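User: Hey, my collaborator sent me this sequence without any context and asked if I could get a structure. I don't really work with proteins. Can you help?
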Amino acid sequence: MTLPETSQMVAGRSKGARARGRAAIVARFLVVIVTTYLGLLAVTFFIGRVIPIDPVLAVLGDRAPAHVVERVREEMGLNLPLYQQFFRYLGDALQGNFGTSVLTTNPVMTDIRRVLPATVELATLGTLIGSLIGVPLGVLAAVKRGSLIDQAVRIVGLIGYSVPIFWLALLSLLLFYAQLRWVAFPGRIDVVYEYTFTPRTGLFLLDSLWQGQWDVFRDVFRHIILPASLLGYVSLAYISRMTRNFMLNELSQEYIVAARAKGLSETRIIWFHALRNAAVPLVTVIALSYASLLEGSVLTETVFAWPGIGLYITNSLQNADMNAVLGGTIVIGSIFIAINILSDILYRTLDPRTRAR
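Assistant: No problem. I've predicted the 3D structure and written it out in structure-token form, which is a compact way to encode the shape of the chain:
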């Protein structure tokens, strides 16, 4: 066998090994996704069965005749063994069928499509505020390590971690709405525009801009800026701390010493070299912060009467509407899983070291 033929065989085996390695990674990835989602469905199902609320009585009321209760119980499949109920629940959930809301009498998925854009808009603006302020603060704290600036940034982050969000929300309403009148009344849009403005995507800021309704845009902005700023502050506390840690790690690397030895300016070293490498794990941090705002804005939405999925779940829970509660929980959990997967893919794409393994 000649040398070129041997080289071709080795190259072919190497390509085959890489292809099998990629296939194994994809297979493990899919197994993790399926297992996580099944775990989410199982947890929500058994929570719905453990909570001492009879879904039949929630629909019919306490004074319904016994024969009617039994008939509805059979129609809902609650007379079946628990494992059969779970598989039925699993099949319906995979089709996006979470039952009918007792509170609104609409299909739960219809309600979720209506309220989810409000939460997405609020969490997105909050994440933008937290990222645009938190990243520069984290970089500044790392560069000025041990200084008063560093201590101030760390104190700001500590307050964001420690102070309950509902307490901050109430104080901010007292100051910026009741006293200064800088922001609008809690809610999403003024009643003047509620019946004249027709949103297309459910994202009021984008819809009002797209339609050129500047008065609506200003009104929506005055409603959203305060709750979004509070969520942005919570996000800022986490992002600034993680940015500081990543930057401290990068600034201690040998390539930074080499860049300084070559005479590069400190600005270029910090913003174009250290931050570029720190941005790889920082993408994951920002993605997880966004996911946490999507699922954790319940108290903020409640205080500000923001008609998002958090307020929807809260009202449903107070009215024993378990179909809506479990449906909303599954949707939020699914979004969290999807964002985690996306952040992992971005991390592997941006970091060549993970692609090499």
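In plain terms: The chain has 16 helices and no strands. You can pass these tokens on to your collaborator as they are.
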